[in-house]
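Proteins fold reproducibly. Consider a sample protein:
=====
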Amino acid sequence: MRRQICFALLSTLTLALTAAAADTTTVGWKKSLILDITTTQTAYSDSWVGGEAGSLNWVSNLSGTAEKQAAPWLNYRSILKLSFGQTVTQDDSTKRWSKPKKSTDLIDWDNLGRLTLHSFVDPYLAFRLESQFAFKLSEVKTVYLSPIKLTESFGIARMFYSGGKTDVVISRFGFAFRQIITDQLVTGSTTETKSITTNDGGIESVTDVQLTLNERLIYTSKLGLFKAVFFSEKDKFAGTPQTDDWKAIDINWENSVTAQLSKIITTKFYTQLLYDKQISRRGRIKETLGIGFLFKLI
């Protein structure tokens, strides 16, 4: 049921963004929907010597933004990011190709409603859904839309800059509740799964930046910080070295620079810094650089 709900929500938002592009009567919406596909491929014949191995990598990203001043006192902004990519590698001795392995997988839907009271800060309510399309639990079992992280938050927000079609610099600070729903294998089974739900709550800070530096260069950034003050599973870690790990500040910092080389040719540089002490005591860094095709649907 939760997967059906998530698919319905994502499908509804995507269809709404696409329909808005064709609706000339829509007034007040600032919207954008961009699809880009990047790929890299190398291959070697069976007679090739030198130890090199071929590879094929592709990544597809869909980024959508919709914002409207629904009333003089209410502003609504929704951001959807979908990414999926795979890598295939060639054995350096047999030259046989492997099965596709997932290299990128992201579902991120962030919704923000602000009470625009024309004061220094605005009260806000926000809802965010984070997940991935597929996750391989074992060689014979793959689950979909797992884990799912749902975040409901409220607090105060400050719009530092707003201009152009979707350019914005906005920060918000408040209290957030999170639910993480995860599929796990039943002990002793490679196919049977069970659903585990954990809950926590704490202080949240989110800063969104999207700037059109010139007609061909776009910079986007999202910095999220979360400090838990309660955790539903804390008793499970009592007396272990991980007793207080859930209290550490979680960090999720994404940055991307997109340069449009021609009408449809683009290059994109993306970095992400993740820190969650419950998962790893070290920060995790992801970096991608690719050249591909970009389509501005809206």
The longest helix spans residues 2-22.
